[in-house]
Sequence to fold (531 residues):
Amino acid sequence: MLDGFVPWPETFATRYRECGYWTGRTLGSLLRERAGTHPEAVALIDRDRRWTYRELDQRADCLATGLQRLGLAPGDRVVVQLPNTAEFVQLIFALFRLGAVPVMTLPAQRHVEIEHLITLSGAAAYVIPDAHFGFDHRTLARAMKDRAPSLRHVLVVGDAQEFTALQTLETEPEPLHGPEPADVALLLLSGGTTGAPKLIPRTHDDYFYNAAASAQVSGLNPLTRYLVALPAAHNFPLACPGILGTLHAGGTLVMCPDPSPDTAFPLIARDRVTVTALVPPLAQLWLEATQWLDDDLSSLQLLQVGGSRLKAETARRVGPELGCSLQQVFGMAEGLLNYTRLDDDEELVLHTQGRPLAEDDEVRVVDTEGRDVPEGETGELLVRGPYTLRGYYRAAEHNATAFTPDGFLRSGDLVRRLPTGHLVVEGRLKDVINRGGEKVPVEELENHLLSHPAVLDVAVVGLPDASLGERTCACVIARGQTPTHSELIAHLGAHGLAAYKFPDETRVLASLPRTVLGKVDKTALIRDAAS
Ligand code: OOB
Fold:
């Protein structure tokens, strides 16, 4: 078992197996099953490349053997930072089959995040594109080689320069020992905890269920064509049902390099896409774009929206303007997924964020003392279940407070539960700004801002925003010279922070309001900023 992984207690593991959640299959076998029954069906389309299930299956095997020859072993962590391409899908299946553990990072992440994730995971390898949207990932890899002693290999899709080209590793497949179903299959990034970003271990057993049950609840089948529009490494497009759910259902993936309507709409029209997943600001943008783009979107049957709260007004427009059904998804990389069901009343689909995927998702809604609130009242969502983690990876200290003594995750989300079991997300307790689905860890950003010489003190708050839901505002107390917004952004960029974490605006104040206990009064800051 991977060191630093917290397993489910044996009584729970037994129950989850007996109840059929954990079927003892690995993610590598998910692809193998379909390649056996439907070898000639198209598994994925990436621009002009079309790979059948047979081809994807074989390519995953060839690469898995190549990675083993390179010296990677079961349990080794591999930081994966690839855009939405065929190689991403091939690589993750190669790693699943080898039993090496992908650490799923986003293409937008930079030195700060990647160094932290390589160091925390003790990664042996780092896989990058040569360049993506004008950024040369090899420069980032060079810096990582200097700073992260665990890193033995940098593998590049494209022009590898001094590193190893990923495609050159493919070789005649040899039998692999492979992982056990209870082993950690991958490490996902947490969007939601305080302090430094955390890693979420997901096992083959639990993630297989996550993908297969999601595929069922979203009605996927062999005719499904799923557009991978959000970054593939995020839990939502990866397995809710996303890439893994689509392949489990025998459907086809359509890889989309970026989720803008200009890129996505022509792909939907050309490849007859039936389903995709978006965050609310993108859903809103797609709705607007139907006014000026005339691509044929008539193949689209289902739009999933999640990641942050979708406004009912936007939800209501999806059917009439995009001509497809809407499914709200309230999920978290930690596990728990809530979906509105395809046969739910319109009221529920428009106004709730869905209900739990599994019968055995134990959801509690509690007050600040940890007592269950009366039905229909708002409180913090606690969860325990067959695909919700029991501990963040290598984070014993954090785990001591992030979970109740009986193993419920404290989600930090404030929800209200309806008699139907559907949840409405009302807010949050955790100190994270949800910038339209992208999670900005407040403490991390504050620390980076504090390292600027002209910043004496800072408080970062989320302000209401019509399209993002929330935008990031840095309230700064200057030291001597007043820093400008662009100076602060340049400082964060030079530090190597991902751009989605940059503040949208900076306000320079004379002092920060404090509570009686001396803590920064963020409620007052938000109120003042709004008035
Ligand atoms: C998804 O996963 P993460 O890990 O990036 O972020 C999880 C957090 C939740 O705890 C909640 O605070 C927020 O994002 N959230 C929503 C939401 N979906 C997620 N808040 C309001 N309404 C929603 N529909 O964001 C994620 C993972 C899998 C599927 C979908 C989203």
Residues 191-192, 235-236, 240, 306-309, 328-333, 353, 411, 413, 425, 428, 434, 437, 439 surround OOB (CB under 6 Å). The chain is about 35% helix and 25% strand. The first strand starts at residue 42 and ends at 46. The two ends are 54 Å apart (CA to CA).
